[in-house]
Amino acid sequence: MLELMNVKKSYDNVTILNDINLEIEDGEIVSILGPSGCGKTTLLNLILGITDADSGKIIFNGKDLTHVPMEKRGFNIVFQDYALFPNLNVYQNITYGLRNKPNISTKNEVEDMIHLLGLEEHLHKRIDQLSGGQKQRVALARTMVMKPEILLLDEPLSALDGVIKESIKDRIKTIAKEFHLTTIIVTHDPEEALTLSDRVMIVNEGKIAQYGKPEEIIETPKDSFVKKFILNQLEIKKNNIYSLFASEHQAKVQTA
Questions:
Q1: Is 129 a residue whose pLDDT tops 60?
Q2: Cβ-based neighbours of 175, under 8 Å, separated by 6 or more
Q3: Most CB atoms closer than 10 Å: which of 44, 118, 145, 245?
Q4: Checking phi first, is residue 236 left (phi over 0); if not, alpha (psi -120 to 50) or beta?
């Protein structure tokens, strides 16, 4: 379990995050959702260890990581721009981290991840020969072969659309469930958060406005900000999302 306890963060005397309390269960997919400037990326950086909290604690499986440096936390991130090496081919990018830690994943495990993400035919290609969705899959594979204890994703679908976007969503879900991997996603897109996550945390002006299951947030928004941010932005797509949860609920009833 990952726990954040009374976490606060300021820059230049401006409070970015204030009194953040959060629990994420092992194997959960959790999205951090909110408008630009609300503090969601700062929160991701605190969990990863890129920056330090001013106060509060970050606990993972009972261990206090608050002052543990990033490289010793065992977490890993896929950045929004993928951060792939243009001078290396796909296979070299995927295995780059194994140069310094060759015993983390075996050759078979690397091949299994390549197969899971459907990258076999692209291994010898240059990065500039790949589509956005293919680059995203390479970035995921490179991260996963390092066997992170928590996977962090920064706007993983923002540059994708249509069928490609849905495909990547499915692969993220598959990875999280197959490896029982706690996955934390930063996004500004309510539809993305609500259809991808087990739970969603909505951040407003550095505070948690609501944290709950997607259906709870849709059916019982905690305040006017949550209602406006979620439902108004989803006005066109709202019926599709309601139908999704209604279908899932009906399926559960029929199999109960």
A1: yes
A2: 116, 140, 144, 151, 181, 183
A3: 145
A4: alpha
Q: Biggest alpha carbon distance in the chain?
A: 55
Q: Show the tokens assigned to 134.
A: 């293919």
Question: Buried (b) or exposed (e) across 216-234, using 16+ Cβ within 10 A?
Answer: ebbeebeeebbeebbeeeb
Amino acid, single-letter form, for residue 143: T
Is residue 95's pLDDT more than 90?
Answer: yes
Q: In DSSP terms, which residues pair with 30 in a beta bridge? A: 184, 199
Distance (Å, whole) CA 221 – CA 70: 35
Tokens matching residue 207? 């505070």
Is residue 158 within 8 Å of residue 80, measured between CB atoms?
yes
> Residue 161: its pLDDT value, please?
78
Contacts of 179 (CB under 8 A, 6+ apart): 144
Residues in the chain: 256
* Close Cβ partners of 20 (under 8 Å, ≥ 6 residues apart): 4, 6, 7, 8, 43, 56, 207, 208
Helix (H, G, I), strand (E, B) or coil at 146: coil
| Residue 194, amino acid | L
Write the DSSP symbol of residue 161: -
